[in-house]
Amino acid sequence: MKDVLKLLTDRGVKASRAGVYQTIHGRSQRREVVEAFLEVAEAEFTRRRQAEERTRQLAATE
After folding, report:
1. What pLDDT was estimated at residue 61?
2. Average pLDDT of the chain, as a whole number
3. Mean pLDDT, to the nearest integer, of 21-37?
4. 23-40 burial, b if ≥16 CB within 10 A, otherwise e?
5. Number of folded domains in the chain?
6. How far is Cα 51 from Cα 18, in angstroms, rounded to an integer?
7. CB of 19 closer than 8 Å to CB of 38
8. I need a labelling partner for 60 at 20 to 30 A (CA). Which of 5, 23, 41, 54 fits?
9. SS3 letters across 1-62
10. Closest by alpha carbon to 39, among 12, 62, 14, 6?
11. 21 pLDDT more than 90
């Protein structure tokens, strides 16, 4: 949530925590909030995949 709000703020979009949750739950259709949420989620999934891959590589070298 913090990363979504920071991204929106950096882009000059005013949004509250409640507003982001409303968008996530489908009660709001603010496109800029949806896009920010998806970008943050994709970045997090990528970061986790990379961490898992590094872990596998380190485990394989032991």
Report:
1. 85
2. 94
3. 93
4. beeeeeebeebeebbeeb
5. 1
6. 31
7. no
8. 41
9. CHHHHHHHHHCCCCCCHHHHHHHHCCCCCCHHHHHHHHHHHHHHHHHHHHHHHHHHHHHHCC
10. 6
11. yes
**Mean pLDDT throughout 19-29?**
92
pLDDT tops 90 at residue 4: yes
Residue with tokens 């496109």: 31
56: containing domain: 2-60
- 4: CB partners within 8 A, 6+ apart: 20, 33, 36, 37, 40
Q: What is the pLDDT of residues 34-53, one digit of tens each?
A: 999 999 999 999 999 999 99
